[in-house]
Amino acid sequence: MTDCSQSPPCRFYDVSLLPPAPADSWRRWRVRLILWALVAAAFALALRYDVTLMQWRYAVWPEGPKGILKQIFYGFRDFAQVVPIVTALLIIARMDKRRWTIITTVLVAQLLGGLMYNTGKLTVLRYRPQEAVEQVESVDQLDQVHTWAGLACGNREHATQSFPSGHSAGAFALAGVLAWFYPRLAGIFWVLAVGCGVSRYADAVHWPSDVVAGAVIGYLGAWLALRPYVWTIPSRIVRRASGEV
Question: How far is residue 219's CA from residue 208's CA, in Å, rounded to a whole number?
């Protein structure tokens, strides 16, 4: 991590503070493929056992978590919402000389994550667990097919905007950026992000697979925001194809 306390104020957006472009290698791509295969497997498992896990949740918490557990889940749920993000950015602006690079990266990550998860919500109709139980089928008779309601362009119904989890996407986008700039606190950020996703399941507003999908979207948003060199790949491909390079 760059120590800006001993250096001049950083430029508005200093790419030298971001992850460098790696040298491509078969080993690196193989590792990436394995990791994404594991993520895909996790999503497939979550999708397969969505209803079973939600039935278990209703069996344990018929009316949702209570008492101190409810307060804990509420705390996790609000990670990466407007007030916490603004508070974090104000602290960064006041205390860290890398302020503009960090703030810009956080905002870009949230923007990218928001574009991706809102695309899903506006086109994929999936009942939220609460609505599925109240409007479609009783929890003990619920089946995977009951959770989906098809596709639509510009879906605005809150009840069918379960996929993916926007809270989870925002949480992982924020955690991904902050973990890079403050690696000693990375564990805390990832715990907060995971806790946010778990809280959405505990509140019965998202299925587990919604949470996994949101987490992947948020991570991708952070990854892209931290690596502006990726954004130049399409232009480089075009230039190579045209013989310019």
Answer: 17
Decide if 194 is inside a domain: yes
The span from the CA of 104 to the CA of 33, in Å, is: 29
Query: Is 2 a domain residue?
Result: no
pTM of the model: 0.90
Domain that holds residue 75: 26-232
Q: pLDDT tens digits for 69-93?
A: 999 999 999 999 999 999 999 999 9
Q: Provide the token pair at 8.
A: 């001049």
CA distance 4 to 23: 27
Contact call for residues 165 and 213 (beta carbons, < 8 A)? yes
Query: Considering the domain boundaries, does residue 20 fall inside one?
Result: no
pLDDT digits (tens, 9 = 90+) for 167-185: 999 999 999 999 999 999 9
* Helix-then-strand count for the chain, H and E: 10, 2
- Domains of the chain: total: 1
